[in-house]
Amino acid sequence: MKKKVILPEGVEDLLIDDCHFRREIEGKLMRYLELAGYMEVQTPTLEYYDLFSHDYLSQYGNRMFKLVDTNGSLLVLRPDCTIPIARMVATKMKDFTYPIKLSYLNNVFRMDQEQSGRKREYRQAGVEIFGVDSYKADVEAIVTAIEALLSLGLMEFQIEIGQVKIIKGILKTLETTEDHQVAILQAIENKNLIRLKELLDAFDLQADTQKLIEMLPTLMGNPYDVFTKLNEMVLTRDVEEGLNELKKVLNLVKEYGYEEYIQLDLGMVAHMDYYTGIVFKGFYKGLGTVILSGGRYDGLMEDFGLSCSATGFAFVVNKLIKAIKIQGEYTLSKNKHILIVAADSKYNKASAIAKKDRSEGNIVEIALAEDLDNYIKHRRVDEVMVISNCSEAGGVGYGGS
Length: 401
Known about the structure:
16 strands; 12 helices; histidine biosynthesis; Rossmann fold; four-stranded mixed β-sheet; glycosyltransferase activity; elongated; 2 domains; alpha+beta; single chain
């Protein structure tokens, strides 16, 4: 009886054309990041469970794939790239000169339900900037994201920016339990105005404070419109500081000439215990999901014994590829494909020709298939070169491309 061969939930095979497409997109993306001054690093697929067990990383919780090694140590498949890179910087790069600008391209693994539209294994590409305690690093991250998307030919995208300090500053005024605070944050994140009002009515809040919190889910869109609404509000010092920092970010992004890609979302909660300042997400028109996200996480490095500011973001590569395909204007590069058909006594000559043509960037194969016509058609061969015992090498153009 034959085995029924199926894949585990949430993973996929990548066939030839899709693999080619992804490799080219990733190559262009990583090349842009290199040209922007980011140095590529790699961390292991396996990490100790304890690395991801902090309270502020509760979003991973039971979503991690766990295994035990022969020593009895609990390991996980990497659910995130930022934390392992932070570990690496704190333990192996602390003598480097700041800023440290790093890039990466890795698989991550999360035990999400496939019904949610999420894969359990997917690719992340991103950057981390260490050692810059300034809004200029936030702008660098946002501009890097924008220019990376433009380098891939994408145009109809939007970057939404939030400021965690604003929400944290408001919540400081509430004396509440952690569960109640989480419920408030969820209502803000989900734009659930009715639920948010119900939760806030449990407090004896000043009218201005309650009005500001209830407005948070609606403070999104054009920056000018958002700040016009806020000008009518009474704000605490913490909120004012967060807004001033946000204005500096927006002004500098404008100086770069990328104002058209920017929107605000002051109800962007993100992971409040993890992020400490500016946060942002990227969306593509026609694709109802996030293609990139990131923000400032200044407190993380202290867990590894290093006081160091940090910010960064990650692309979800498969979502990025979907966006490029939706736009429909991307043409894959194609190298000339040559097939050499050689007699046994001419393999030395065929090999020499193949090496020369490959050095010039061509795809060159020495024929193995018996049904050459079918192979040429399906492999989209451009030229067939025949080297027989009684002839010199001769090329035959073939319309298989």
